[in-house]
Amino acid sequence: MVTIKDIAKACGVSPTTVSKALNGYTDVSEKTAGRIREMAASMHYLPNSAARMLKTDRSHNIGVLFEDETQSGLTHEYFSHILNAAKYELEDAGYDITFISKKVGGNSFLEHCRYRKVDGVLIASVDFTQPQVRELVESDIPVVTIDYMFDSHSCVMSDNESGAYELMKYLYSMGHRKIAFIHGEMTSVTVKRLTGFNRAKREFHLNLPEEYFRQSRYHDAARTWHEFEALWKLKDRPTAVLFPDDYSYICCKTEFEQHGIRIPDDVSIVGYDGIPMSQQVRPKLTTLEQDADRIGRASAKKLVEAIEHPKAVFVEEIKVSGRLLTGGTVKQLTSSPENTGEVKQ
Fold first, then answer.
1. What is the dihedral of CA 255, 256, 261, 264, to 10 degrees?
2. Are residue 116 and residue 259 in the same domain, yes or no?
């Protein structure tokens, strides 16, 4: 195994100079540091992680807590992009990743984190009300959450309120006045989307019946189709429906076809997330694209900041805006977007 002493001998410098160069100290000239790094790479030098941990009191290992109730795991079209972006950001900062579970190193998330000696934890897509999640959040381990805010920790959130509002605003501009919302389970994300939906409803003076609000589950196509069928059986059907996510709509396309329901001729549909497949189906899905890459990188940066500068870091809620993708699943019902009178079918 190549050591720092071997590199020092090959470069004709002291082991201390090699150590400083490899750890980014500025009292070694860039020319010398560059030569040392090139030599280390050519000799296939690998730092001793145990020794580095003793010296810096850090493992350079980040825990990722990700539990998806629909069991889609890392194939999840939305969260997989977030975690991938966070992974690249953390690797650029010199950190490895360990996925946290209750099955390794003990019977709780916190015990697993202790067992792996993680420097911090990124938490996404879990039931944040779980006692074991709260135990971890309330520990001394730095934590950053995604789409859920605790008072004591920073959070990176997609701006779900504005996203739902923009979808409603677009449907209204296309002449829709009878708009239904099939939303996911009652999480903080759902609450914010409902807030955006209701803000638009008040602003546009829409009088929508309670039957137009249906609860499904995110990523659950069967449940979403069941709720859509309930809407379709109403005497006064909606002309447009917000789906909980793009995945549910894509999986329901076969059901629409089998039941002879034409999108958007019979009913308009909008999704949420902006996953790549939503723009590959025909017609393209009108949806709200969430900036998964920015969410992942921002959460990773904030976590590294909390680990490396604990006394300077401040708790904040970082909101990340999305963008509307106008596809072909929304029908124009009126010739004038400003027309607020009777809807022309």
1. 170
2. no
**Token pair for residue 8?**
């020092």
pLDDT tens digit sequence for 230-280: 999 999 999 999 999 999 999 999 999 999 999 999 999 999 999 999 999
The burial class, CB within 10 Å (0-12 / 13-18 / 19+), for 131 is exposed
Q: What domain range includes position 33?
A: 4-47
pTM (2 decimals)? 0.78
Q: Are strands 213-215 and 240-242 parallel, antiparallel or unpaired?
A: unpaired
Residue 69: alpha-carbon gap to chain centroid: 15
Distances (CA, A) of 217 to 186, 222, 223: 9, 9, 7
- 258 lies in some domain: yes
Exposed/middle/buried for 27, CB within 10 Å: 0-12, 13-18, 19+?
Answer: exposed
Q: Which residues lie closer than 8 Å to 256 by C-beta, 6 or more apart? A: 262, 263
Concatenate the DSSP letters of all residues of 107-159 into one string: SSHHHHHHHHT-SEEEEESS-TTSHHHHHHHTSSS-EEEES---TTSEEEEE-
CATH, residue 316: 3.40.50.2300
Q: Does residue 301 sit in the same domain as residue 315?
A: yes
Backbone angles phi, psi at 319, to 5 degrees: -95, 135
Burial of 322 (0-12, 13-18, 19+ CB in 10 A): buried
Q: Is residue 56 part of a domain?
A: no
Residues 209, 259, single domain; the answer is yes
Per residue in 40-62, pLDDT (tens digit) is: 989 988 776 545 554 556 788 99
Is residue 72 over pLDDT 80?
no
Averaged pLDDT of the chain: 89
Domain check: are 219 and 167 in the same one? yes
Indicate the number of domains in the chain. Answer: 3
| Helix, strand, coil percentages, rounded to 5, for the chain | 45, 15, 45
Give the pLDDT confidence score for residue 105 in this predicted structure: 59
